[in-house]
Amino acid sequence: MRIGLTFNSLPKSDSRYKTDEYAEFDDISVIMAIKKALESAGHEVILIEADRDAYEKLKNSNLDFVFNIAECMFGESRRSQIPAMLEMLNIPYTGSGVLTQAITLNKARTKEILGFYGIPILKFQLFKTGNEPLNPYLKFPLFVKPNAEGSSKGITSKSLVKNEDELRERVSYIINRYHQPALVEEYLDGREFTVSLLGNPPKVLPIVEVDFSTLPDNIPKFDCYEVKWFWDSPDNEVETVICPARIDKKIEARIKKVALYTFEVLGCVDLCRIDMRLDKNDVPNVLDVNVLPGLIPDPKENSRFPKACYSAGMTYDEIILSILEAAMKRYNIAKPVRVAVKPHRSLQ
Questions:
Q1: Other CB atoms closer than 10 Å to residue 299's CB: what's the count?
Q2: Least confident range of 13-17, 305-309, 316-320
Q3: CA–CA distance, 263 with 255 (Å, rounded to integer)
Q4: Does domain 2-95 match CATH 3.40.50.20?
Q5: What is the C-alpha to C-alpha distance for residues 254 and 186, in angstroms, rounded to an integer?
């Protein structure tokens, strides 16, 4: 097949360690690894940057399918832009559709939907101006982050606030720096897990636990930008990811149940990563839903979706081809003879 690979590449002049502006974009090594994986199955791959010229490139490239990892840059529904173009052009693609991409980028809207369906979530309030009175059901400490960002953008050691002054200062910073509402939610200090799902219907991959106890004492014990992109990197000996997670069967069953129901309720397809924290009663509360999880190939990088796949016994090429195959089946497109991905025991 002739497959378009839609992406946003990290500018050569930028570094995630200096600024979070392009944190959601992919390094060229990730893009080329996906291209290589698709080519290993005999596909022709056309690279298409998700920029202002993307629509014309998609329209004129005579594509059979698109493997989409594009975040896009502008707008509150930016992750929906490439899927919307593809649906307009009637080109099938991997990953969740326009509506699901838009909803899951909006953390408050996601919480409202999950709460309606009885899925455990944290109490929260959306601050649009910064002048709103704090709802009395929210008690300090609280956690403040942008409402529509990923990759821990806007989350630092200052995100955990302990009083009204710190709250107002952080809310104001988020609104002014990221030009969007600030999400304020209760803070849980329980164990944190990441659940990766693959296929349709989805299979739950080995659960990842994020172990913050390995971090230095002066580093926040939550998934802030410094932890994700500096401390939890090949340049440091700190290891925050445990996969498979060491949990008892009862908690594991609860986590899987919440993950599968979340996937269904939000209309996710093909792949998804869901972050959760346990409360004092060991109930998993959904923190975030990522329908465009990172696909960094290097196991040392602790990219959590691939990490779960590796724990299931998959190679990187098999991860990429399994995503493609799941999407093709969803569109009732026959698998080409040269695409041969064997299901692993954990996915059966």
A1: 14
A2: 13-17
A3: 12
A4: yes
A5: 21
Distances, alpha carbon 345 to alpha carbons 203, 253, 310, 312, 330, in Å: 11, 18, 13, 8, 22
CB half-sphere exposure, 111, CA atoms < 13 A: 21
For residue 39, the model assigns a pLDDT of 98
pLDDT in tens, 136-186: 999 999 999 999 876 667 778 889 999 999 999 999 999 999 899 999 999
Domain boundaries, the chain: 2-95, 123-186, 192-347
Rounded Cα distance, 120 and 286, in Å:
6
Dihedral, 207, 255, 111, 135 alpha carbons, nearest 10: -110
For 213-240, the pLDDT digits (tens) are 776 666 666 665 565 555 455 666 667 8
Q: Which two tokens stand for residue 226?
A: 């410094």
The domain 123-186 is placed in CATH, from the list 2.40.128, 3.30.1490, 3.40.50, 3.30.2010, at: 3.30.1490
Select from 97, 82, 89 the least CA-distant residue to 5.
Answer: 82
- Cα distances (angstroms) measured from residue 84 to each of 57, 78, 96: 14, 10, 11
Q: For domain 192-347, which architecture applies? A: 2-Layer Sandwich (3.30)
pTM beyond 0.85, yes or no: yes
- DSSP H helix total and E strand total for the chain: 10, 13
